[in-house]
Structure formats: structure tokens, C-alpha cells
Amino acid sequence: MTKAELLAPLREITTSDLNRANAGNQDNKEGDTSRIHWGKFALMGRLVNNVTMFQNRCRTSPALHVQDRHGLYQQLFPQSLVLMDDDVRTYYSFLRLRKLTFRR
Q: CA 5, 44, 40, 90 torsion: positive or negative?
């Protein structure tokens, strides 16, 4: 397997593709809200499966073997580090959106 076959797509591109698939397609069939638009979810599933496939290739490839650097991980993410939970992230996202919406 060549390195070109192992390369994973950029996260920003994949996120953009997922956002466009979500925003550009309705959840339900047009004209009949009781029917789910499965094409949208199939497309999103294919995008997620592609990323998972590339991640698995990178993890299992001897060409891309990276040694575990536990010491570096401990420096970057000490146990005392407190990450934002979902509620805090939602609150800050709301504030950012509100600031953009009401900007003059």
C-alpha cells in the first residue's frame, strides 16, 4: 500500500462535506413529512465510513507507525486539565452566533 492510499482527508473538508450534506437535504421527503429522506443519511454515512476507513488504514499501516509518546500526551493533557462539557460549548456557540447575528 502506498502512502497516497493511506492519506486521510482533511478534517475541515470532511466537516464541510457533512455540513453541506445536512444543510442541502431535508430530513423528510418533500411533500410528505412522514417519510424519511434516506438518501441524505446514506450520503452522510458514506462520508463517515470513508473517514473511518482512512483512520483504520493509518492505524494499521507499518509505513505510518508512530511510537506512543505517553510523556508528551501527559504534558499536553494533564489530569488537572478541565475540558468544556457539551453545555458550556453550546452556550459559547450561542454567544458567538448571537454576536454575529446582531452585529451592525
A: negative
Q: How far apart are CA 58 and CA 60, in angstroms?
A: 6
Q: Around Cβ 72, how many Cβ atoms within 10 Å?
A: 9
Residue 9: predicted pLDDT? 63
Q: Residues 53-103: pLDDT tens digits?
A: 887 887 787 777 767 788 888 888 787 777 767 777 787 777 777 666 665
Taking the C-alpha atoms of residue 74 and residue 14, their distance in angstroms, rounded to an integer, is 29
55, burial (CB in 10 Å: exposed 0-12, middle 13-18, buried 19+): exposed
Which three three-digit cell numbers place residue 39?
438518501
Q: Nine-digit cell at 97?
A: 452566533
> Quick check: 15 and 48 in contact, CB under 8 A?
no
Contacts of 40 (CB under 8 A, 6+ apart): 21, 22, 25, 26, 27
Determine the residue type at 68: D
Q: In this structure, what C-alpha cell is assigned to residue 95?
A: 454567544
